[in-house]
Write a structure and sequence with these properties.
disordered N terminus; six-stranded parallel beta sheet; alpha/beta; single chain
Length: 285
């Protein structure tokens, strides 16, 4: 699937290849076992997925299992659920809801639309092992409104599930350029419409900031936990989306974070000097 919409953001390109080296030692390749050895030492781990990739979801569960084997205090933060539905997730984990009730009460099928079974094994593992699951995402009604009318259009009620407007930062020039290219690729009729792009940019950054705020709040409140973040690769590559905004909230260098790109095909390469992620996972190993 290759699509661009408010609610599902996938970066798509047929002319680029992902880097296969890792940070902090560019030029070196890593086995999956070596990657795992690094991830278990990190406070926050970002797993950048392609939403319709079964292999990506299998890798996510494998990584979570190994991290939980070494540290029982693992939280799973998921883009796939929107913040107003946190209580439904908590009730499911506590055994108060069935899995079907969880799907219904989070409005999963309408709000995410990728097959439930892609993520169900992860939720089942979390329930079995009593791992917290964080609903990260902005309500889709809010992102759609921002994309069409801008941040200034939001009411006080709509602002309840997002960070303060002053924290929604759109000043990263490289991220802006990346999103502009995506916007133009998929919205050809609007290429000359700067207002439409600015609203798209606001919606995308709102999405990033909302997820980052929830992650940072959990880390501050639960310093003994590791957090594994499941999100689309567009929110993670180069650190522009979620990672840099978590780091801004927690203080640069205060928390060890690692990012993993789960699918190494069709990724934009912006700079040879900046790795697309710390690690690239190899599904064949």
């Amino acid at each position: 699937m290759c699509a661009l919409s408010i609610g599902i953001f996938l970066l798509c390109s047929s002319a680029v290849t992902a880097q296969t080296t890792a940070n902090p030692q560019p030029g070196q390749t890593y086995t999956n076992q070596e990657i795992l050895q690094q991830l278990v030492k990190a406070k926050v781990v970002y797993l950048g997925e392609t939403h319709d990739s079964a292999e990506d979801h299998q890798a996510q569960l494998a990584i979570i299992r190994e991290m939980q084997r070494q540290n029982r205090k693992i939280a799973i933060a998921m883009e796939m659920f929107q913040r107003p539905f946190q209580s439904a997730i908590d009730n499911y984990l506590a055994g108060k809801l069935t899995e079907q009730q969880l799907v219904e009460q989070t409005e999963y099928d309408r709000r995410w639309r990728f097959p439930w079974e892609s993520y169900a094994p992860i939720l089942r593992f979390a329930k079995e092992n009593q791992l917290p699951v964080l609903a990260l995402n902005t309500p889709s009604e809010v992102t759609r409104k921002v994309a069409s009318q801008g941040l200034e259009s939001l009411t006080a009620e709509e602002k309840k599930h997002i960070p303060p407007i002053s924290e929604i930062r759109t000043d990263n020039a490289e991220y802006r350029q990346l999103l502009l290219e995506v916007f133009q690729q998929h919205q050809k009729a609007a290429q000359g419409n700067s207002t439409a792009f600015e609203r798209f940019l606001q919606a995308q950054v709102l999405w990033d900031e909302t997820m980052a705020e929830k992650i940072a709040e959990f880390v501050k409140a639960n310093p003994d936990y590791q957090v594994v973040v499941l999100a689309g690769k567009g929110h993670i590559i180069y650190g522009y989306g979620i990672p840099s905004r978590v780091e801004r909230r927690l203080g640069v260098g205060n928390v060890k974070m690692r990012s993993v790109l789960l699918n190494s095909s069709d990724n934009p390469v912006l700079s040879a000097d900046r790795p697309i992620a710390d690690f690239v996972w190899n599904h064949s190993k």
